[in-house]
Amino acid sequence: MKIAISGKGGVGKTTLSSLLARYWARKGFRVLAVDADPDANLGSALGIDTTEITPIAKMEELIHERTGTKPGTVGGFFKMNPRVDDLPESLGKEKDGVRLLLMGTVKKGGGGCICPESVLLKALISHLVLYQKDLVVMDMEAGIEHLGRGTAQGVDRLVIVVEPGRRSIETAAKVRELTRDIGLHRVVAVGSKVRNIKEEEFLRNNLDGIPLIGILPFSEEIAAADLQGRPPSLDDPVIHEAVEKIAAALEAEAA
Q1: Distance in angstroms (rounded) separating the CA atoms of residues 23 and 232
Q2: Is residue 110 scored above 50 in pLDDT?
Q3: Domains and their CATH numbers in the chain
Q4: pLDDT tens-place string over residues 16-41
């Protein structure tokens, strides 16, 4: 499976990404967790120290080697299809069966960036989605910048994480519009930080056709883990039951 997870900042998409990755690793899958969010926190949620990991977008020597052009260079020619198949193994850091890949972001001004950094990142994302044999969980930003039209066809599901609130619902609607533009129609939602039936019903009544496949309820364990800077415990019964149901729904839809 190739699962991309998006949503408004702060709704809990990184928490869900980490929980699903760890859950599937426990089930015996080879799991690759990809942090493609500019506000990179997936390592912390997985219990992986990323202080000594350089994001791929900042690896200037690697980018130069693979594309033929140094980052920041204006003009010139560079490879649009650089080799990336060896990068998940060589650059990833593993813990408890989950290998983390830290993408990083491309700083760009004005209107977009066709630069060596972005070309390498998009080639890598394309490889992970279309050719990587591992189960891939991608923690995306609120947009879907890393996904191109061709790559989108390989994503089994794009999960939009939503919390009970109008801003979160509005972000979900915007993400769905972006996915339609690139031909990705396999979009579902997961409710996060839901405290009661009333909040769950709010989500079901306002997602405007986006299927709600599961709920990650508000959890004191998740809140405590966030305060303490550690991964939430998968052995917490409330968390485990919720993640198990969400994972089962994704597995069934991808089958």
Answers
A1: 12
A2: no
A3: 2-47+93-103+132-254 (3.40.50.300)
A4: 999 999 999 999 999 999 998 877 89
